[in-house]
C-alpha cells in the first residue's frame, strides 16, 4: 500500500501498538517498507506466524505471511486516528482521510479475491477462529487512549531477573568428599554437593 501524510516511523509504531493489543504481536510491517518520492511510504502488513492471530491464507488455501482483512482494518483505523488526513492506496481501494476510510473499507470485506473457479471473500480467508467475531470488533477508541499491555517478553525477563536475584542470596551447599582416601584432596574428582 502507498501511504501519504504519515511518516514511516509512525506507521511502524501504530502497527506495533495495534499488533500487541489485538494480535499478540503477530502483525508486522514488511521489512521492505520504504520512503518514495513525493513524500509517501510504500509498505505491506505481514504476520510473523502464518497460523497465528491476524493471519490469512491465499485464495488457493496456501499459507503465507499474509495479514488478514481485520488486521489491515485495525492498523489503518489506528493510523487514521493519529493522522485523520492521511491518504492510503491499497490494491482494493483508495482512502482519502478518516471519513473515506470509514465509508469505503467495510465494502472491501465482500470483494471477491479468488479465482472464477474458487471465489473467496477477504474475510473467508482468515486463519483465526474468532476472526470476524465479537472479539475482533473494530477498534473504536484512539490508539493512544488505550494503554499497551506489558509484553510477554517483559514478564519473562522480570521472572528471570527475580530468579537470578534469589540465586545470589542462597549460599551454595558445602562439598562433601565421597570416594576412596587415595583421591582425597584431588580437585573435582570425588566431591559432590549434597
Question: Could you explain the architecture of this structure?
Answer:
Helix 2 (69-82) runs antiparallel to helix 3. The protein starts with a strand and ends with a strand. The protein has 194 residues and is an alpha+beta fold. The longest helix has 18 residues, at 152-169. The strands form 4 sheets. Strands 3-4-1-8-9 form a 5-stranded antiparallel β-sheet. A two-stranded antiparallel ribbon has the order 2-5. A two-stranded antiparallel sheet has the order 6-7. The radius of gyration is 26 Å and the shape is elongated. The protein has helices spanning 8-22, 69-82, 97-108, 152-169, and strands at residues 2-4, 27-29, 34-36, 40-42, 45-47, 55-57, 63-67, 87-89, 94-96, 175-177, 191-193. It folds into 2 domains: 2-149, no CATH class; 153-193, no CATH class. The relative contact order is 0.13. Residues 171-194 are annotated as: Disordered.
Topology diagram in text:
Elements: E1 2-4, H1 8-22, E2 27-29, E3 34-36, E4 40-42, E5 45-47, E6 55-57, E7 63-67, H2 69-82, E8 87-89, E9 94-96, H3 97-108, H4 152-169, E10 175-177, E11 191-193
Antiparallel strand pairs: 1-4, 1-8, 2-5, 3-4, 6-7, 8-9, 10-11
Helix pairs in contact: 1-2, 2-3
Amino acid at each position: 500500500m502507498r501511504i501519504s501524510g504519515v511518516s514511516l516511523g509512525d506507521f511502524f509504531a501504530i502497527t506495533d501498538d495495534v499488533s500487541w493489543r489485538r494480535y499478540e504481536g503477530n502483525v508486522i510491517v514488511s521489512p521492505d517498507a520504504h520512503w518514495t518520492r513525493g513524500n509517501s511510504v510504500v509498505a505491506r502488513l505481514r504476520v510473523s506466524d502464518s497460523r497465528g492471530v491476524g493471519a490469512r491464507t491465499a485464495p488457493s488455501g496456501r499459507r503465507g505471511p499474509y495479514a488478514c482483512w481485520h488486521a489491515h482494518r485495525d492498523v489503518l483505523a489506528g493510523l487514521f486516528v493519529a493522522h485523520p488526513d492521511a491518504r492510503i492506496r491499497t490494491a482494493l481501494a483508495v482512502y482519502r482521510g478518516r471519513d473515506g476510510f470509514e465509508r469505503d473499507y467495510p465494502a472491501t470485506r465482500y470483494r471477491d479475491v479468488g479465482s472464477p473457479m474458487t471465489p473467496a471473500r477477504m474475510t473467508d480467508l482468515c486463519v483465526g477462529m474468532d476472526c470476524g467475531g465479537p472479539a475482533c470488533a473494530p477498534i473504536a477508541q484512539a490508539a493512544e487512549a488505550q494503554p499497551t499491555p506489558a509484553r510477554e517478553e517483559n514478564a519473562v525477563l522480570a521472572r528471570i531477573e527475580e530468579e537470578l536475584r534469589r540465586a545470589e542470596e542462597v549460599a551454595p551447599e558445602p562439598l562433601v568428599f565421597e570416594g576412596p582416601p587415595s583421591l582425597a584432596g584431588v580437585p573435582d574428582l570425588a566431591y559432590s554437593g549434597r
